[in-house]
Design brief:
- It is built from 20 helices and 35 strands.
- Strand 5 and strand 6 form a beta hairpin.
- Strands 1-2-3-4-6-5 form a six-stranded antiparallel β-sheet, with helices on one face. It has a six-stranded antiparallel β-sheet with strand order 8-7-12-11-10-9.
- By secondary structure, it is α+β, with helices and mostly antiparallel strands.
- Helix 2 packs antiparallel against helix 3, helix 2 (about 80-100) packs parallel to helix 10 and helix 10 runs parallel beside helix 15.
- The protein is elongated and about 125 Å long.
């Protein structure tokens, strides 16, 4: 991949085909060009980034990373997910389907980004807008990518040149309102608020843990602390909270809100508390971590930061000029938050204040309207409640349904009527539904600690407010769902790419866990099931904090595994949290020297720490891993104490589990078949090389192809009897399993026939008949066969038959190399085969080298090692042992070419000992 980034300026026009037309006016223009925009591009290009990707599968993931990094670096996080999905599809078309390089160009403008993906296969037909049938199949090359362009992009099109086809799309940034947000009337000078000679605004930045990371000079002047004294300290050490009576939000909670405004106090260096008015804004720092920017002024100068008060909520609010104002703006305030969480949080705070309650909450309905999910609350333990789910129809009586307004005078009289408030101390509550076009979209409630606080009048007021905000909440919720689903699509694209990239079972398990933690869950575990008769086995555990993995693994190994139910969807599993809590409580009581404890007997040896109990104390769900109509395992996802899963996250996890299950089953099948193949291949190899007194023997064997242990080349060395040994080296036409089958036939037939006392020519003639009897499965076979007898004078006598095989070479002590046999016809071609054997005597120090044609036909471009090259290498082996000779030949073959060998290779070296030197 090659890339280039050029910030600023206006580069040359990236497309050579002229101006482009809008997608609404697409017209076919033959195969030369497809124009989709007739308006000139007026936006100034402020930066560009380019990259070229090779035509290999891994380039798709690399292209996604390139676009994501580029857009995030430009601050275009709002459109990253759409851009990544579109780029993934278009680059796939280029590098996978077309098999060409892909050129990706990102262009930044003031209002968005334009991305162009060009390939080098211009002849392909591209579907036109007025021919939707041509884009109907998502499996067609180019079909799905262009469909996504039409669905997600603001503008898109296709350009042709004689050498390239270029698909481009443009994504615009979301519109953000600008200009006047709030304003007040002109006032006489004597009515303006008083301020000191210089108004100082303290600017603090606080990280996600509440620690001060930045402290400006005005903060030093206001509170007396120099920056080095306060940076690194928690803000709670300085804040006197609350300064204003009745404030129900603590400083820690306020720092986690997206926006907050109000009063509290700061304890200065002199020990006095200075009342301040503060405005908090939650942001992300340059590293992507959340932090809070705090602006503080003296309380009597609050007008500098304070938002103007709103008109009280009435049925028909009036503006100063007598015109009606929007009831929604009156209730929620203007400007309304532009994000769902901010809107919901503002809603519950205003609802609580409107009814003078102690707490308020808002729940959103799931798509099927069967459950409500807690999304915002105030005055309640939000960490415990957020994303908790309660049924829409919850019990008997007038408080049993969230579809109707309800007033509850005393919750202690009807336990469980409002499950969300159990254990919170709230006694009275009023709840009203949020409906859009008759469909339940949520529920809004306000509660108080005193009983009997609310009546039907308060219910009507709250219902009036709920009716005004329901449409805005539903619109924001749908927008959030759309963003989540686009992000989910990008996530699943990358997950599928990663899972499809490996057939290793252990690596697949690790990928499953790493994709879920921490994106979907805080921790996860994977159970596998070998077959229907086997119990689930805990195969993998992962937590975002590595120090907790062993504790969770120990806990899960001691509790029964979840039942392998094939029913799709996530189901809650409570056992880990319950057992961890009981064991941790028992451990704590023992450490305090207290007797007793829970009566439930905890299995010995669990002993989880409090950290482990907290880690698995939240919601835990189980998703089945179903592949080919069989449950092959389970994916367990968990949250820490008091946390719950969002419904959208569970749906995404279910999609991931289906893909992961198929990938895991494919890895299992591949592993099984690989094990079977390797076992069968090993059975074709000789069990070992026998020791021969008076002769050194060395064999080197390499089968071509990944995962192959045996191919078309083979060798053998075996005792015949009466001090004689048979040896063979052969090459079956072709490689792979079919050639290996003939290899097995030849090797076993040679041993059987030679031990019957037949001569070498007779052995090969009968083997030739056996190969021909195989019919269509028969293969040509070149074979060098011989019998060797060590002699008392230290030499060795060999009788050799060379049937179409590369001739054996004899190396003498003086360095001369000569063929040790004559060529004869190969096996498996003709029936009446006449062969004869030749006698060779190896004197002390002589070497006989036998190889297959994978050695002599080793190529580098147009060059080939050949018989002459092998002879030249062998002449340098004078005085070497048989092992050193074979090793030197193999090194020479490997170094001759840079590519991996494409043919099987076998080397058999035999030497009659004499004086030798090391290699």
């Amino acid at each position: 991949m090659t890339t280039g980034v050029i910030p600023g300026g206006q580069p040359p026009e990236p497309q050579p085909t002229g101006e482009l037309m809008p997608q609404q006016r697409r017209e076919p223009a033959g195969r030369a060009a497809l124009h989709v925009d007739n308006r000139p591009r007026s936006s100034v290009i402020t930066a560009r980034a380019a990259a070229t990707f090779e035509p290999v599968g891994r380039s798709v993931a690399t292209a996604r990373s390139f676009v994501r990094d580029t857009l995030q670096g430009w601050g275009f996080a709002d459109i990253v997910d759409d851009a990544v999905v579109l780029t993934s599809e278009l680059v796939t078309n280029a590098v996978v389907h077309a098999g060409t390089h892909a050129d990706v160009l990102c262009l930044r403008t003031e209002d968005g980004v334009r991305i162009e993906v060009a390939d080098r296969y211009p002849e392909r037909e591209v579907p036109l807008q007025n021919a939707p049938a041509s884009m109907g199949s998502p499996d067609r090359e180019g079909g799905r990518g262009l469909q996504l362009c039409a669905a997600l992009a603001a503008r898109w099109g296709v350009d042709y040149t004689p050498t390239h086809k270029n698909v481009w799309f443009q994504l615009n940034l979301p519109e953000r309102p600008v200009g006047t947000r709030t304003a007040g009337p002109s006032l006489p000078a004597d009515l303006l608020p008083l301020a000191d000679g210089r108004i100082r605004v303290a600017v603090l930045q606080v990280d996600r843990k509440g620690t001060i990371t930045s402290w400006n000079e005005d903060a030093q002047e206001l509170f007396g602390y120099p920056a080095p004294e306060v940076v690194g300290r928690p803000l709670t050490e300085l804040a006197a909270w609350p300064h204003t009576p009745g404030t129900s939000t603590g400083v820690a909670e306020a720092l986690r809100l997206s926006r907050w405004e109000g009063s509290y106090g700061i304890r200065g260096a002199d020990g006095r508390v200075a009342p301040v008015y503060a405005s908090h804004l939650r942001v992300r720092d340059t590293g992507g971590e959340p932090s809070t920017v705090c602006l503080l002024v003296r309380d009597h100068e609050r007008a500098v930061l304070q938002s103007p008060p709103r008109v009280p909520a009435t049925d028909q609010p009036q503006s100063p000029d007598g015109q009606s104002t929007d009831p929604f703006e009156v209730f929620i305030g203007s400007p309304a938050p532009d994000d769902l969480d901010g809107l919901l949080q503002r809603t519950v705070e205003r609802a609580r204040d409107m009814l003078d309650g102690d707490s308020a909450f808002l729940l959103l309905a799931t798509d099927d309207e069967t459950e409500l999910e807690v999304r915002a609350s105030t005055g309640l333990p939000s960490a415990r409640q957020r994303f908790a789910r309660v049924p829409v129809e919850a019990g008997p009586g007038r408080y049993g349904s969230a579809r109707m307004p309800a007033v509850h005078d005393d919750l202690t009289a009807v336990p469980g009527a409002v499950p969300l408030l159990s254990g919170t101390g709230m006694r009275s509550v009023v709840t009203v539904p949020l409906k859009v076009e008759g469909r339940l979209t949520g529920s809004l409630g306000v509660a108080a600690e005193a009983p009997g606080r609310y009546s039907n009048e308060e219910a009507l007021r709250l219902q009036f407010a709920a009716d005004r905000i329901a449409l805005a909440v539903e619109s924001a919720r749908l927008g959030e769902l759309e963003r989540l689903r686009r992000g989910s699509l990008s996530f699943l694209v990358e997950a599928s790419d990663l899972l499809a990239g490996t057939l290793d079972r252990d690596q697949t398990l690790a990928l499953m866990a790493q994709m879920t933690v921490p994106t979907l869950a805080t921790w996860c575990a994977v159970y596998t099931i070998a077959d229907q008769a086997s119990e689930p086995y805990l195969s993998y555990v992962l937590h975002e904090d590595e120090e907790l993995i062993d504790g969770i693994k120990s806990l899960l190994s001691k509790v029964p595994a979840p039942d392998p139910v094939p029913t799709p969807g996530a189901r809650v599993w409570t056992i880990p949290g319950e057992v961890a809590h009981q064991a941790a409580l028992r451990t704590s009581m023992r450490s305090l020297g207290l007797a007793g404890g829970p009566t439930h007997r905890v299995a010995a040896g669990i002993g989880p720490t409090l950290a482990t109990a907290s880690a698995v104390g939240g919601e835990t769900v189980v998703l089945p891993l179903v592949a080919r109509n069989r449950v092959i395992g389970m994916l367990v996802l968990g949250k820490p104490t008091d946390e719950h899963f969002r419904q959208e996250i569970l749906e995404l996890a279910e999609d991931l589990s289906r893909r992961a299950a198929l990938a895991l089953d494919n890895a299992r099948l591949y592993s099984e078949r690989t094990a079977i193949s390797q076992a069968l291949q090993r059975s074709l190899l000789p069990p070992g090389t026998p020791h021969i007194d008076g002769v050194e023997v060395e064999v080197i064997y390499r089968a071509a192809g990944e995962g192959n242990e045996v191919g078309g080349d083979f060798y053998d060395l075996f005792p015949i009897g009466n001090g004689a040994y048979g040896f063979a080296i052969g090459d079956v036409c072709g490689t792979g399993p079919n050639a290996a089958a003939v290899t097995g036939l030849a090797r076993h037939a040679l041993r059987l026939l030679a031990r019957e006392g037949l001569s070498g020519p007779a052995v090969l003639q009968r083997l030739n008949s056996a190969i021909l009897d195989e019919g269509d499965r028969s293969r040509f076979l070149t074979l060098l066969y011989g019998e060797m007898r060590p002699q008392e004078d230290g030499s060795a006598e060999l009788k050799v038959v060379c049937a179409g095989h590369p001739l054996p070479l004899r190396l003498r002590q003086d360095g001369t190399v000569t063929p040790a046999a004559e060529p004869q016809p190969l096996l498996g071609v003709i029936e009446d085969l006449e062969l004869h054997e030749e006698t060779v005597t190896l004197d002390p120090g002589d070497v006989l080298l036998c190889v297959t044609d994978g050695v002599t036909e080793r190529r580098e471009g147009s060059r080939m090692l050949g018989d002459d090259g092998l002879t030249d290498v062998l002449t340098t082996c004078t005085g070497l042992t048989a092992g050193a000779v074979a090793a030197r030949i193999m090194r020479a073959v490997e170094r001759f070419a840079s590519d991996a060998p494409s043919d099987d290779m076998a080397i058999l070296a035999m030497r009659v000992p004499g004086h030798h030197k090391e290699a």
